[in-house]
Write a structure and sequence with these properties.
3 strands; 5 helices; alpha/beta
């Protein structure tokens, strides 16, 4: 990942208190060539993602067909997630999207936008939106209405 992605992600992750730790676990993409079996590569990447998910984790799949939440709705969701689950795992697919196994494991599907966004931006946007949701829950001045 380019340095600006790591810098952007870490900027929001470090703002959260220690009991709301935000970890980014990246699964390396399989090498793609013009003759690659993209479904097989997608499934291998999905298996590696799911191997990192705790069995008791709430799983949110970031998917273009998921629900679109505004910031207040996300803060409500975050409050529930934090109250009911010890860990929340957000899954972001590769260039072909999330494989079926990841979608089936997901408890919810979240769409950031109807736009197609590059993965580099998704990482930063998710971190910022989670920080914003936390700030709303804690009456922090970051989110101004």
């Amino acid at each position: 990942m380019p340095t600006w992605v790591e810098t952007g992600f870490q900027e929001y992750a470090k703002r959260l208190p220690n009991n709301y730790r935000l970890n980014l676990i990246q699964i390396p993409l399989q090498k793609r060539t013009k003759n690659s079996d993209l479904t097989r590569l997608q499934n291998v990447e999905g298996e590696r993602m799911l191997a990192k998910v705790n069995s008791d984790s709430l799983v949110i799949a970031l998917d273009e067909h998921g629900q679109i939440w505004d910031s207040p709705k996300l803060s409500t969701k975050l409050a529930y997630w934090l109250q009911e689950y010890s860990t929340v795992s957000l899954l972001v697919g590769g260039p072909e999207g999330l494989p079926l196994a990841c979608q089936q494991r997901a408890n919810q599907q979240w769409s950031l936008s109807k736009l197609t966004l590059p993965h580099q931006l998704v990482k930063i946007i998710v971190a910022e939106q989670l920080y914003r949701a936390w700030s709303m829950l804690n009456n922090h001045p970051y989110h101004r209405v």
